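During the reporting period the student researcher (J.K.) took over the structure-prediction task from the postdoctoral fellow and processed the backlog of single-chain submissions. One of the processed entries is reproduced below for the supervisory committee.
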Amino acid sequence: MHRGQHGSALKIAHMVPPASILVSGLGESTHDYLVPRLVQEGYQARLAVGLKHTLELLRSRVNLLLLDLPSADEVIHVPTIRAACSATMIIIGPARNDRLVVSALDLGADDYVQRPFRTDELLARIRAQLRRRNGQSGALVFGLLSLDLQGRRAMHAGQPVELEPHALTLLTLLASRPGYPYPGDVLAERLWGSCDQGSLARLAATVEYLRALIEPDPRSPVILGGDIGQGYWLSHMTQARNAD
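J.K. obtained the following structure tokens:
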């Protein structure tokens, strides 16, 4: 990539602020290990313990709240927290309690994740909720390729195309943070569960495969930028309106 193109892409990345996520526990402790993991994923993340501390931090910019309920008793605080912010709220709570799940959603939560949970599933739910918050329900267009994020379908030059599964996952992930340079090792770990040389080579091959579909000139990419060392990012994409 030419120096000017890379500088332009980094400028775009700086213009797109990372989503701010607050990890809050209403007990004496919470899943504090999530904070460094969220930072690694490219988010701004902070930790709050207790109702008072949570309400204090919600006075600043928060896009998504991960609210940990130690038991069903703490669900009474959900309306207070909902009234204090407009952030998307994902509750982490006890399993095998259908009444609690219904109550939490009725009181203002946007999603409910039962303990124990898989971190990768929680991260996927976070990305899905942030896409909804950002209005990414229509098709995203990258050059000649359009991607339906919800239906996970793709069109190339107006014709349906079967994207390789890892290519579709990669494109969906990059589209969740336009302009943000995702490190190559993070992407390889997400796609293949490893960041060894073999996985990094597969990542580079997947990027080349996508560039052949979306770039006017794959040798000089302007849509899917970066490399293994710099990370990869998406720019110059537009959003098609829904039919309704």
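The committee noted the following: The domain at 136-239 is CATH 1.10.10.10 (Arc Repressor Mutant, subunit A).
J.K. will present the remaining backlog at the next meeting.
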